[in-house]
Structures are given as C-alpha cells and as structure tokens.
Design goal:
This protein has about 400 residues and is mainly α. It folds into two domains: about 160 residues, no CATH class; about 200 residues, hpI Integrase, Chain A (Orthogonal Bundle). It is built from 14 helices and seven strands. The chain starts with 7 loop residues before the first strand and ends with a helix.
Length: about 400
C-alpha cells in the first residue's frame, strides 16, 4: 500500500452520540483550532485503524497535518464560517484550492515540496489529503461538531485521478546517471573541508546506494538500526533486515561491494560514539569526533534533503526525481540487466526484493524499460540519417 493509501476507519469504536454536546467551533482563533486538533489527535488513536492495527506515529501526524491544513485554509478564506456551517460548496472550494496552481508550498502549509509538480500537488497527494480530511469530518460528526459529510453530500467533490499510464508515473535514473550521482557523492567526500563533512558524505553514499542499488524506501533507510546489519552471514554476502510501512519486515542480501560501502561509514560512525543505535545518524558541525555529543537518528526529511543536494550537484534534479526515483532506478536496472543478458525477468524475485506482495508490480517496470528498448520508431530513424547524410537527387 503506497503513501496515497486510503485509511480504514474502525466504526465499531466511534464514541456514542447520545451524550455529545453540540458545539459550534469557530476556527479563526488559534486557541479554538488547537483545542479541536488536540481532541482530534486523541480520537485518531482510538478510532483509526490501518489494516486493523493501531495507527503509527507517522499515520497520526499525517491525519493531523491534513486537518490542520484545512482549518488554516478555512480561517484564512472563510473566517466567518464556523465548522458546523461547512457545506459541500465550501468543501468544493477547498478541493479547487488544492488542485489549483495559484498557491505556493508555504501558503499551503505543506512541508513536503516533493508532493508538488509544476506548482501543484500531485494527484496521489491530493487523494491522500482528501482521505485524511474524510477522517477529520468523521471525527467532527462523531463529536456533533458538524452535521452530515461535506465531502460526501455534494456532487463534484471527487479526488483527482492520475490519467497517465502507470509507466508514465515512473521516474528513474539511467545507469549513466546513477554513476554520475555516486561520483558527485565521492567528489563531495574528496573535497570536504572538515572531517564531519567528509563523514557525512560517506554516510550519504551508503544511504543513496541502499536506495538505488538495493531498492530501499526512505522510511526503511531511516528506520535501520545497527542490529539490522549482519555482515558476511553467507560467505562474503551479508544481510540487512528492513522495517517498512505497516510494520512489514523483509531481509535483503548485500554483496561484498555494498558491505564495503556500509562498513566504511560504520567505521566513521564509531568515531562519534553515538548513544542512538540508528544506523544513520545526523552529524552536526558543532560535534567533533571526540565530543561524544548525542547524535540523533536522521529524519526522513533530512535524508531527502541530502539526496536532493547530490542530485542538484550532479545536474540530475528534476520534477519527480527524488529518493523514490532511486528506488525506481533499482527496479528498472534489474529489468534492463535481464534484457541485456537475454534472460527472463524474475518477476517474483523483483517484487519480493522491493517489499511488494503483488508480483504484478514488476510488469510496470518491465513495460517501462521495454517502452525504450522496443521503441517502434527505431527502424524509421534511418530516414533521418539518410536525409542528413545523403545528397539531393
């Protein structure tokens, strides 16, 4: 299930309505908004279930973010409208605001510019936002703060659809671009003006390599701990235990080359003596190799920022080219390698290595690679070559 997943709401745990006191929340004052959001956060923990499990802290933050963004929009654009008075027309205006390109990330309240394409939220992001907003209105109805469902009662309120073919949603680097990216990281390590900066580059090389050459998600990189890495468990190959979305776990096998990249970083990491057992920790300039200051597990935002820095340095940063593009690169290069060797793609192995239970996901990457490898216009390019090189008759 990807980041645009639709969350299941556990109806059986909703608070009974009989004793709920009707309240009219006017969301313009910050105190009213904060009190409402605090109540909403408590409700999420008791009533929202993702695959019948308690919501993770990331899920709670996501729901809270969508509720907070809507309330901020309402206070700014409909300051005289109490929450009870939100109608399908108001909801339609909010959806139009989400899908429009006339607002910036700062105004929108988004902390995830990666969700933007050409000044707009991507369709998948809007779907996720509206799924979170449905949860917020479900809470508000359970508490008696709204009547009906503004997102369901009116026509024309629909989540936007991504009309592209699934292959068009894939953003990946070519093999040459992947080499260029890693060279940018190597260059940063070689030109570093301090041990901290050099060690940060060696850490970043390990993170980028895991995403691009092992297919890890950002969240899987961020959640790695020292205990998850076992070197040379089978001859010269090691293993890495991953902790993915929805408490899913899987193990990937690391070849000697990948272990060398990890071991190089771990040797530098040991110099800092961090108390946190995270595999990847933040390194701040104020912390020296001998200070022993507490170092924190890197956040996903920090990881994305570091990757974007190297993509920029390599001249590869573009719309949709981010950490997830590195994961796509893993899949497309696996397919391309099979094509070059004349072998069939191990669909099940590819899907399993990426943490997908549905092996049909491999078909998307196969179609993507074949779209270029089997370009039907290739035989016609001789016409251009002959026209450019031949003489007029």
């Amino acid at each position: 299930m990807d980041e645009s997943r639709q969350y299941a709401i556990d109806d059986s745990r909703e608070t009974a309505q009989a004793n709920v006191t009707s309240m009219v929340w006017v969301v313009a004052p910050a105190d009213d908004s904060n009190a409402l959001l605090a109540e909403y956060e408590s409700w999420i923990g008791r009533n929202v279930a993702l695959r019948k499990r308690a919501p993770s802290p990331e899920t709670v933050r996501g729901y809270m973010g969508e509720g907070r963004q809507f309330l901020a929009w309402l206070a700014r654009n409909e300051p005289a409208t109490p929450l009870r008075a939100v109608t399908p027309d108001v909801a339609r205006e909010y959806v139009a605001w989400l899908t429009g390109g006339g607002h910036g990330a700062a105004q929108a309240g988004s902390r995830r510019p990666r969700d933007w394409q050409g000044g707009q939220y991507t369709p998948a992001t809007i779907q996720r936002k509206l799924a979170g907003l449905k949860s917020f209105f479900k809470f508000a109805r359970a508490r008696g703060y709204v009547e009906g469902d503004p997102l369901a009662d009116g026509e024309g309120i629909r989540t936007p659809e991504a009309h592209e073919h699934k292959t068009e949603q894939i953003k990946a680097l070519t093999q040459e671009q992947a080499v260029k990216l890693l060279r940018a990281v190597n260059s940063a390590a070689a030109r570093a003006t301090s041990p901290d900066k050099q060690n940060a580059a060696l850490r970043d090389k390990a993170m980028i390599s895991l995403m691009m050459l092992q297919g890890l998600r950002v969240i899987e990189v961020q959640r790695l701990s020292l205990v998850d890495y076992t070197p040379n468990v089978w001859g010269d190959q090691g293993t890495l235990k991953l902790h993915g979305k929805g408490d899913k776990h899987r193990t990937v096998v690391l070849r000697p080359e990948m272990q060398q990249v990890l071991n190089t970083w771990l040797a530098r990491r040991e110099l800092y003596r961090p108390e946190d057992d995270a595999l990847f920790v933040s390194l701040h300039p104020a912390q020296s190799e001998t200070s022993g200051h507490r170092l924190q597990r890197m956040s996903r935002r920090s990881i994305r920022a570091r990757v974007d820095r190297y993509l920029d340095a390599a001249g590869l940063k573009d719309t949709g080219i981010s950490c997830h593009a590195l994961r796509h690169t893993y899949a497309t290069e696996i397919v391309a390698a099979a094509r070059r060797s004349g072998q069939e793609v191990d669909r099940e192995g590819l899907a399993r290595s990426m943490g997908h239970s549905d092996i049909s996901i491999a078909e998307i990457y196969i179609d993507y690679v074949d779209m270029f490898a089997k370009n039907p216009s290739a035989p016609l390019m001789g016409i251009l070559r002959e026209a450019d090189g031949g003489s007029e008759r």
